């Protein structure tokens, strides 16, 4: 066996060596073979490399490279010293080169590398696979079957770009012609002269590429097997008044029966429904052109379609369905009873408003044009009430009709009967009993509502008390209301109405006891919940405090809730700090505490449902700087403190009155009580008189500087009187009370009248002591205040005291230096006072004094101010006394 | 003793076997042949049935074609379609033996195809290209070709050793150039004759169905008996 293989290889070699003259001519010393146009992917490929025209290298020096990689030596087979085989497994779809190289065994090889290499281009592809699932069709063209037969098939296997597979569709009319057409795709059309009716066809597909050819299975069928006609033409549907439950369909043949004998399929459904019902094929005989559909509902629109195919089994394709043929069946008398129900609402006390509503019977069999209604109070059973008609307004798209509103006393019961009437006749009567309020029978127990599979489901337990004949399930949303009836054994049901998502339905279940309505059981259900449409609007309930603010909000309107509110979350934010508080859904106000005073807060509320949440509008407020009452508290505290201080001061003043009096108002001896008063020879008795008006014997005048003139006028009028009466005392006053402004004037005028001041002074000298006081310092710290304390001493003046010249000198010194308590100094002051008394110019009237102020610089420093500032408080003090 | 008895029983068995074996062989071969004959007969029937079906179809189509032809020729078509013409093939089937009659059908079909071609050429000049008559003429001509092919196949299946005889009168004789009226008369005569011929063919095939295919079965059975 091995020998034979070797022999074959040698034969191949001999062929190859003679085959590549081109390589030899080009000077190559290596030649590869074979050079197939295509190699099949997944197979092994063997190539041979031969050394020609040189003995410099041998097969041992050869090696193979494939896609830049050296082929392992295990895949080499040495044929002889000049030939080397390699076997590789063809994989991948990309073309590649298989090169034979020579090792650099000599300089010649190195210098002529181009002559010591040769390659095989491996163009890869897949062998064609047998096409499968051939199907052919010949369509109707106008009134005949088209002579063009179109076929399609599944191309098995894969192709590469360089090795594409072509297909040839071959149609053979048995015993007649054979036609073919080529394509690269998976379908093709073969044109014949005419469609070969009554002939057998044999159809197959041939797949071909560079690697080979293969044919599909042959499809041999009668030509009728491939025919597809047009659908039946001119379909008509006829409604006959005398047959309210049937419709007649007519149509035309799409093609003459000579070419194709047809069978038909008919289907129908109610208008708007796509739940087709099919007429059994056995009922649609061959070549019929009409069919009567029966057992339809009266006054119902039906849609009908028809299609056809070759009547022979497995022959031909079904045509497309015809377009819709739509017709309404005629009306018939209503079957069954109308669905009567009531809506009870509260009215005045002791009354109910009962509204009766009615739906058409399930089998209305036509358009209900009116309802006839009879209302009978149970107390008046004998009374024969008449029927009342309520026309049905068909513009109203609601499924129910409102019949009548009745005000019914709580203690009354009603029986209502209703029949539905269409153009053909009336239905049986439906009855409903409205019991007295107190006698309403028991409701269902443990009513629960939920949603499952996109449907609203209810579940309940029947009442224990009495036998229920049926249930009425009523659902209300906003102003919409509907109901459905369930039989007595029902304990759970699905609401069949057109429910909307995100709407709260109040669902009630009423047990019906032989027509008598029982009490309702109610539950609220959402078909589907979502986030609320809007959030609650928050606002402040009252003005915020310093650390708290009371918020309040209104509930989201029912139409915007879109779900059950599970809770509210209150957010409040100041600066970058966000706080939140979650409160239950039944809360509509909340007080935020621990707020910072004098801070602006933004607040908003998020309402949450099971399916999401929505935030309301934001509201801003600023907390107060001071809490309410805080300012009042401070003011009151301060006031109380001040009051306390005042009171304490007063208490101290009262308790320490003597001390204060002693300090501020020192006891000044009354000159009137002085014994010196009696030594005046001129006025021994008159001197006593002023005591009545002036305790201290000093006449006190409240003198304003501006009122000085008026005072002068008054004084001038009273001057003649006073001159006589008080001459002596005024004179005395001028000595001891230089603080009294009038006294010096009197003294001056007195002196002006011709009195000899020197003599007077010399003859009536009084002792006065001047005491420096701290109280005066406090009033006029800058002035040279002095208290003149009248001395009761009658001791004769010293010589030095009688010398006015010395006093003037001392007075000038006294102006430059404040008085002190030095006794010597005191004496000097006393002398200065005496000097002032003696100098009439010092006791001039205010006018003159003012003139003096302008003329005499020295006296301007202290004379005008000293008497005014130092004596005024002293006058007050005397007033109190 | 026992060995002798055994030998005698063996001999009897062998004799019985020798007698029954040919009979069993004949029965086996007969059953095989019966199955083969039955299959061949069925094939004959199917082939004949299909030929008959196509003949009926073409006949009905020719009726439609004549209507279309008359409608396309305008007035007086009914009148000139009754005129007999000599240059059209004889609608009758000739021959005595089935093979001859089948061959006659075949040659007639060939002849009619030549006439259809002439009529088509004439009507192409007389009708608009969109006229349905041209399409129907093409269709009938094609079906005649198919019918001829089926007849040939049927003949070959029935008489595999008998070559289809050539037409007795040589190539089909077509009429000389004609005027328009003559063309119209000629075309209608061809179609009418063709329809009549197809009626004869259908009748002949129905006859052959009971004659040829059954005889073939009987012949096969006879041959089997002889062997």
From TrEMBL, chain B:
Function: CNTF is a survival factor for various neuronal cell types. Seems to prevent the degeneration of motor axons after axotomy.
The species this protein was found in: Pleuronectes platessa
One of the protein's GO biological processes: negative regulation of neuron apoptotic process
Keyword Signal: yes
Keyword Secreted found: yes
Pfam families: LIF_OSM
Compartment(s) where it occurs, according to its Swiss-Prot or TrEMBL record: Cytoplasm; Secreted
GO MF, one annotated term: growth factor activity
Family designation: Belongs to the CNTF family.
Organismal lineage: Eukaryota, Metazoa, Chordata, Craniata, Vertebrata
Coarse class of the protein's main subcellular location: cytoplasm
Signal sequence bounds: 1-28
Cellular component, GO annotation: cytoplasm; extracellular space
Record key words, sorted: Cytokine, Cytoplasm, Developmental protein, Differentiation, Growth factor, Neurogenesis, Secreted, Signal
Designated name of the protein: Ciliary neurotrophic factor
Coiled coil spans: none
